Amino acid sequence: MSDKSLLEQWRATAYDQSLSKTELENFWSKYFTIEKDIYVELLKNPDEEVRGTLKEVAAKYGQDVMTMVGFLDGINDSLKVANPIETMTEDTEINLVFDKELLYKNMIDAKADWLYGLPQWDDIFDEETKKRLYREQKQSGTIRKEKKIGRNDPCPCGSGKKYKKCCGRNI
Prior knowledge:
This protein is mainly alpha-helical. It has 7 helices and 2 strands.
């Protein structure tokens, strides 16, 4: 048994620098296919409260424990109650009860179009809602600068005076 937690073991495997670029690409390609299949199952019945030990939930989706740890690492921020992924063992009780809007937005943030583009989302959100969530997520990372008031511009207080003769006088 390793001294590392399951999460540390997963990350050591997933980000193993000793593997070649091709090996890492193959690893992630296989993982993303598995991840997509799990999401397809989860989204078929989004209100189902999937709970159990890590080992039981992994078996439910036909995965080994390590792959399920990787999946939990990705979905944990979208859950209504986060799992203790840093310290979990095979017998730790976990849940996959997710916030639908948050999960959709997190998939957009991760640029995982193979996930937020799944047809199962059509049964959960209408097109308008998906567009709104997409916009909200994209705008959340955008920094907007307010238009700077010029000295000779009209004062925003509505006095009719130039800014430099009104509210900008004391600056």
